Structure prediction request, 108 residues.
Amino acid sequence: MPSTQLPITNYQLPITQIMFVVISYDIPEDNRRTKIHKTLKSYGQWMQYSVFECELTKTQYAKLRLRLSKLIKPDEDNIRFYFLCGCCHGKIERIGGEMPIDTTVFFA
Prediction:
C-alpha cells in the first residue's frame, strides 16, 4: 500500500492549542531507530517499543516532523502520526502492564 504524506496545513488548530498524537515507527536500521527514539522522547511519552504518545502544539508538531524527516530514509523507514480528538483522548483504555512513567526531561 503506498504511503501518503499529510500536509501539516490539514490541521487548522490555533497555534497554542494542544493536540494529542500517537506516533508509531518502523525503522529497520539500529542507529536511525535510536535517533528517532531519542528525538521522540524529547517530545512525548514512550509507551511501547515503537510507540509514543505526545501532546503537542501545532508549532511543536511541525518542528518534530521536520526533525524526523531529516533522520529517516523514506524508502526504508515508516513513521505514522495518529491524531486523536479531545473526546477520543479521554476514551483510551489499557489492559495489563504497569502504567509507563518516564520522568526523564529533554529539551527540544
Remarks:
- The domain at 16-89 is CATH 3.30.70.240 (Alpha-Beta Plaits).
- Residues 47 and 94 are 11 Å apart (CA to CA).
